[in-house]
Amino acid sequence: MTNILEIFLLVSMLITLIKFMFTASKWEKVLAYSSFSSKAVLLMLVFAFISDQLFLLDVIIIFLILNVWGIVIISIFLERKGDIK
Protein backbone atom coordinates (compact mmCIF):
# COMPACT_ATOMS: atom_id res chain seq x y z
CA MET A 1 0.00 0.00 0.00
CA THR A 2 2.76 2.44 0.86
CA ASN A 3 4.60 1.67 -2.37
CA ILE A 4 1.53 2.77 -4.32
CA LEU A 5 1.38 5.97 -2.26
CA GLU A 6 5.05 6.68 -2.93
CA ILE A 7 4.57 6.13 -6.67
CA PHE A 8 1.57 8.46 -6.79
CA LEU A 9 3.47 11.13 -4.88
CA LEU A 10 6.47 10.85 -7.19
CA VAL A 11 4.29 11.07 -10.32
CA SER A 12 2.48 14.05 -8.84
CA MET A 13 5.81 15.71 -8.02
CA LEU A 14 6.99 15.12 -11.59
CA ILE A 15 3.84 16.73 -13.00
CA THR A 16 4.26 19.70 -10.66
CA LEU A 17 7.91 20.06 -11.66
CA ILE A 18 6.94 20.10 -15.34
CA LYS A 19 4.34 22.77 -14.59
CA PHE A 20 6.98 24.80 -12.76
CA MET A 21 9.38 24.63 -15.69
CA PHE A 22 6.92 25.48 -18.45
CA THR A 23 4.67 28.12 -16.90
CA ALA A 24 5.14 31.78 -17.77
CA SER A 25 3.60 33.55 -14.78
CA LYS A 26 5.72 34.23 -11.71
CA TRP A 27 2.76 33.59 -9.41
CA GLU A 28 2.12 30.19 -10.98
CA LYS A 29 5.78 29.35 -10.43
CA VAL A 30 5.42 30.23 -6.74
CA LEU A 31 2.29 28.08 -6.53
CA ALA A 32 4.02 25.17 -8.26
CA TYR A 33 7.04 25.50 -5.94
CA SER A 34 4.79 25.47 -2.90
CA SER A 35 2.90 22.45 -4.18
CA PHE A 36 6.13 20.59 -4.99
CA SER A 37 7.62 21.23 -1.56
CA SER A 38 4.39 20.14 0.16
CA LYS A 39 4.45 16.88 -1.79
CA ALA A 40 8.12 16.44 -0.89
CA VAL A 41 7.17 16.77 2.78
CA LEU A 42 4.46 14.14 2.34
CA LEU A 43 6.99 11.82 0.72
CA MET A 44 9.41 12.39 3.62
CA LEU A 45 6.61 11.64 6.09
CA VAL A 46 5.79 8.38 4.34
CA PHE A 47 9.48 7.44 4.36
CA ALA A 48 9.83 8.32 8.05
CA PHE A 49 6.89 6.14 9.04
CA ILE A 50 7.86 3.22 6.78
CA SER A 51 11.45 3.12 8.01
CA ASP A 52 10.33 3.75 11.61
CA GLN A 53 12.73 6.67 12.00
CA LEU A 54 10.56 9.12 13.88
CA PHE A 55 13.44 11.52 14.54
CA LEU A 56 12.98 12.64 10.93
CA LEU A 57 9.76 14.33 11.99
CA ASP A 58 11.82 17.13 13.55
CA VAL A 59 13.63 17.69 10.27
CA ILE A 60 10.32 17.68 8.40
CA ILE A 61 8.84 20.30 10.74
CA ILE A 62 11.86 22.57 10.22
CA PHE A 63 11.57 22.08 6.46
CA LEU A 64 7.88 23.06 6.59
CA ILE A 65 8.61 26.21 8.59
CA LEU A 66 11.36 27.24 6.15
CA ASN A 67 9.06 26.51 3.22
CA VAL A 68 6.24 28.68 4.56
CA TRP A 69 8.59 31.58 5.32
CA GLY A 70 10.19 31.26 1.88
CA ILE A 71 6.80 31.43 0.16
CA VAL A 72 5.81 34.47 2.22
CA ILE A 73 9.07 36.28 1.46
CA ILE A 74 8.89 35.50 -2.27
CA SER A 75 5.25 36.63 -2.40
CA ILE A 76 6.04 39.92 -0.70
CA PHE A 77 8.99 40.46 -3.05
CA LEU A 78 6.85 39.79 -6.14
CA GLU A 79 4.01 41.95 -4.86
CA ARG A 80 6.37 44.92 -4.50
CA LYS A 81 7.65 44.24 -8.04
CA GLY A 82 11.21 43.67 -6.86
CA ASP A 83 11.60 46.78 -4.70
CA ILE A 84 13.43 46.11 -1.46
CA LYS A 85 12.41 48.73 1.11
Give a structural overview.
By secondary structure, this protein is mostly helical. The chain has one domain. About 80% of the residues lie in helices and about 0% in strands. It has helices at about 1-20, 25-50, 55-80. α1 runs antiparallel to α2 and α2 (about 25-50) packs antiparallel against α3 (about 55-80).
Let me know the average pLDDT: 88
SS class: mainly alpha
Number of helices: 3
Q: Helix share of residues?
A: over 70%
Strand content: under 5%
First-last Cα distance: 50 Å
Which stretches are low in confidence, meaning pLDDT under 50 for 5 or more residues running?
A: none
Outline type: flat
In angstroms, what is the radius of gyration?
15 Å
Instruction: Give, in order, the helices and strands.
Output: HHH
Query: What characterizes the major β-sheet?
Result: none
Number of strands: 0
Task: Give the tally of structural domains.
Answer: 1
Summed up:
With 85 residues, the chain is an all-alpha fold.
Task: Give structural attributes.
single chain; 85 residues; mainly alpha
Secondary-structure map:
Elements: H1 2-22, H2 26-50, H3 56-79
